[in-house]
Amino acid sequence: MTDAQALVKTLDFQLDIQSDNESLLYDATLEARSVYNETIRLAKEGVDWDDIPDRVADDANLVKNTTQRVVAKALGAMKNYYEYDDFGQPSHTKDGAYPLRANYEEGYNLSLTDDGDVAFRISAKPYKHVTGVLKGSDAHLDILQTALEIDEWKIGTAEALFHNDNAELHVNVTNTEQTVRDKQDSLTVVGMDVNEDNVALTALSEGGVEDTLVIDFPEIKFERHHYFTMRKRVQNAGKDSIHNTLEGREERFVRDRLHKVSRHIVAWSQQFEKPCIVFEDLKEMRDSIDYGTRMNRRLHHLPFRTLQFYTSYKASFEGIPTAWINPEYTSQRCPMCGHTERANRNKKRFKCRDCGHQDHSDRGASVNIAVKGVKKLDWNVPALNSLPTVRKVRRQASGAVDAPTVTHPTVRGYQADGRMGVSD
Ligand SMILES: [Zn+2]
């Protein structure tokens, strides 16, 4: 999660393959799959990771540096497994296409045509190329054309892959000129509270709370539970290949949604003067819920970290700095009077047992995160006399949909024992 990584943007295109060699590209993605599988297999066997690239490259029918990129990606998946255990140990027995990752000007090339199109040339196999033009959104084509013309934007690795049977190219572009503003130079702190089915944002300036937005994404939670149940069923039936397909589908679904949500977060933050987005470090420590099973842990863990990561790199690409704070008590503290007690919070409702302040509990947490961010930046914490009405939007496949505005929630159902359920 370094800043260097943060300045990379991925642009997605469809490949309009001119020559009759779509099957050549498909074959190359199958070859990439066997490179991936072989890498994972050797890593599981305990082969020294430094020795794997050469051992795999000897048998691979791909351009050498493309093989190296695919090997590096497979080892990245292993590393991620050891560090986070997000999706279980990577499989080395899946089949089907795997993204062909290539270095710019080695494994693939791009150029502007006289018609203003961007032409591509991908080395699918040694000495065998796939050519054509890229199709995509105006915004992405625009950035790529800029990158081809000016030095500040560098074109990096790309992945050729098949998505719903269509050939695509995902190109990484780095803006070497954009620097992330020094966070000390910020005038607004945006506190971000990530939950399983929403994210709450609060913008705090020296004048107090500027605005709050809650972005709901109940379908992410729903789909993840749904996929989990389906996977369990096929796994119990011993159908591993279906299990793997479902896992891939779930992963794509969740990542796609989280990308959309993170874009929304950055766009919202940009309306404020010199923003700095503040995240909680290791959120799962904050609520002492019993994450007994591995699945529970995974369900709760993944969206938090991924959404923070997507948001931080998209923010950096816009020059917006980010900061991390300690998550302790952010969900239990009353943002108005500071009284801190677990019983203040009950699911989505917050009611302070000292001053009686009532609020949407995730908004309250986002205010507390912003306050901690302000302290971290060494500002004086402004007096909070009132908080603006919480606005809610729902993030769906088609984009943001306005949902009814939530005012202060009622305390109906408030449980005196202060049980803090996070999922219903
Ligand atoms: Zn209070």
Features of the shown structure:
DNA-binding, seven-stranded antiparallel beta sheet, Cas12f1-like_TNB, Nucleotidyltransferase, domain 5, alpha+beta, 9 helices, disordered N terminus, seven-stranded mixed beta sheet, binds zinc ion, 424 residues, 2 domains, Transposase
Molecular structure report:
This protein has 424 residues and is of the alpha+beta class. It folds into two domains: 3-175, no CATH class; 183-402, 2-Layer Sandwich (Nucleotidyltransferase, domain 5). Helix content is 37%, strand content 25%. It has nine helices and 17 strands. The chain has helices at residues 3-6, 22-45, 52-57, 64-84, 138-149, 218-236, 240-269, 294-317, 361-376; strands spanning 8-17, 100-102, 108-112, 118-125, 128-135, 153-163, 166-175, 188-194, 198-205, 208-216, 275-280, 322-325, 345-346, 349-351, 358-360, 391-396, 399-402. It has a seven-stranded antiparallel beta sheet. A seven-stranded mixed beta sheet has the order 12-11-8-9-10-16-17. Strands 13-14-15 form a three-stranded antiparallel beta sheet. Strand 6 (153-163) and strand 7 form a beta hairpin. The chain starts with a helix and ends in a 22-residue tail after the last strand. Mean pLDDT is 82; it is low at 1-6, 283-299 and 404-424. The chain binds zinc ion. Zinc ion binds at residues 334, 336-337, 339, 352, 354-355, 357.
The arrangement of helices and strands along the chain is HEHHHEEEEHEEEEEHHEHEEEEHEE
Number of helices: 9
Taking the sheet with the most strands, its summary is: 7 strands, antiparallel
Structural class: alpha+beta
Spatially, the strands of the biggest sheet line up as 2-6-7-1-5-4-3
CATH architecture label name of the largest domain: 2-Layer Sandwich
DSSP summary, beta strand count: 17
Which overall shape is indicated by the principal axes computed on the Cα atoms? globular
Q: Provide the CATH superfamily of the largest domain.
A: Ribonuclease H-like superfamily/Ribonuclease H
Low-confidence stretches: 1-6, 283-299, 404-424
